[in-house]
Amino acid sequence: MPRKNRSVTEILFDWVNYLLLGLIACLMLLPFMYVIAGSFASEAELTERAFFIIPRSFSLDGYKYILSSNSIFHSIFVSVGVTFVGSLVNLLFTVTMAYPLARRDLLGRNTVLNLVVFSMLFSGGLIPTYLVVKALGLLDSYGALILPGAISAFNLIIVKNFFQELPAGLEEAAKIDGCTEIGILWKIVLPLSKPVLATFGLFYAVGHWNNFFSALLYLNESSMWPLQVILRQIVMLSQGVGSASQLDTTVQLPEQTIKMAVIVVGTLPIMMVYPFLQKHFAKGVLIGSVKG
Amino acid sequence: MPRRNSIHKLGGEGVNEIATDPGRTTGLLKARISKSTTMKRLKRDKWLYVLLMPGILYFLIFKYVPMWGAALAFKNYQPFTGFWASEWVGFEHFRNFFQNPDFFKLLRNTLLLSLYSLAIAFPAPIIIALMLNEVRASLYKRTIQTLIYIPHFISMVIVVSLTYVLFTTQGGIINELIFQWTGQKIDFLADPHWFRPMIILQNLWKDCGFGTIIFLAAISGVDLEQYEAAHMDGASRWRQIWHITLPSIRSTIIVLLILRTGDLLDNGFEHIYLMSNALNRDVADVFDTYVYTMGITMGAFSYSTAVGLFKSVIGIFLIVSSNYLAKKFGQSGIY
């Protein structure tokens, strides 16, 4: 639209709109910036100054505490391990199932697809799932954090749609050259799907890193807890208003800087992968919404 | 020739000879062909079925066995007797649940939270998407988008932790600021009156940005000439939003609304569980947390399965009926 035609109300409209959006974005960001700043500040500065983005004092007490605390340090290792192994399992299960389902002439394909879609609509519920995990002997094992969510039906369908879009000629040619189905998947389809694999690997990884519920449900042994559960212990249960259940009495009342440092550690990996995620998720969400 | 090709593709080499002479394919032969075709196809694709196996097993074990296990709701399950030996009790658990004085408290808390979030957290992404669509400086638009999507990827534990650190009466920054202005502190975390506003606020913060993606995608399909024509005719920006942009995302809004009504009894267990404490139980207890407390903490497996099943069935009923209503009013619905 030509600029000279703009009336005063139009210009005002734009200014207010830009300002409001900027404000919304700031509200999204400020809590993080304050907590990051606070995690590097001394406890004294936190109580004295109201709000700050750049700390005057510089202290690593919060992070030193994390390094010295066995339970926190160990939980970080657990989270990293579960995230890594879990995402690999997710990708393996998702890809091996999506590939055959991408073949339109596969006998029984529709039955399996209906099975998958129905599981998105109706679930047996929390307790029956818990009892299945228990019956499999997975309680108090890391398998309970990985296997019950090995495939996300939603992701599976998107990956299947992607495989379907690949040119069929390549596979035909490989078959004529004597390649088996598994060979085709490994040597031709997967190399072509690297961006998709990276995207869904990241999505699954974020899910594992953020997972709190499975650990709460399936892990009674506190020495096995991942970071999210320990984080809750430190930040919420030490507030005095926290729920009485599962209170770990060995953790003494931590200071604000320590809480902030733990929050930063819990958020950092997400922030690190966010630029890569962001590049792909808009596309992923779109594919899903159009063809889901 | 094309027909022969297609049969060849389906059946492999064996049927090829017969297919070359269509006149000979009588009914009996057809049946035989289709049977042998089935076997051929199964044999040809055997590696594909091998690949399919782990996935199918996963869905059967972790999705379908629990569905069938929901039959526990009609049994009196004891861990030591096991699933099969436990006696059938019909609708006893459902009766107990509906007659429990807690039922109305749970229903009220669940529905109030859902309705508030429907009224506030549902329209928010639509409004922000409309605002973003009006931004012409594309760098500014992209920066804002990048920033407001971030909270979606942060875990609920971190979201609630941030809330605790910022809102606590013991040195939290929000309360320090309120104290400086008014000389009083507000216990956002324990005061039952503040429970629902805090939940909605957190929901808004976490997802109002990410929720815009789907609406922005719908808006991007609008032909820009429509705006130009409207501008020529002297339509203001408001009128353009109202008559061009909003109608273009109407079907998206309706689809999301239908899906949302299916979740009316779902408040997100993690979120509520993390925000509830001894002081706000009266407003914080919802169906999701009740299933967990009764089932996992207290060990009343059958009873809490019944509560969960009640929730699922109502959810499906809501989605089907809102879809029906949407279609009745001339919208496309989700299926």
TrEMBL record, chain A:
Residues passing through the membrane, by range: 12-37, 72-99, 111-133, 145-163, 184-206, 258-277
Major location category of this protein: membrane
Keyword Signal appears in the UniProt entry: no
Localization in the cell: Cell membrane
Domain ABC transmembrane type-1: 76-274
Recorded superkingdom: Bacteria
Keyword list, A-Z: Cell membrane, Membrane, Transmembrane, Transmembrane helix, Transport
Pfam family, one: BPD_transp_1
InterPro entries for the chain: MetI-like, MetI-like_sf
Topology of the protein relative to the lipid bilayer: Multi-pass membrane protein
Family according to the record: Belongs to the binding-protein-dependent transport system permease family.
Name of protein: ABC transporter permease subunit
Organism: Paenibacillus phytohabitans
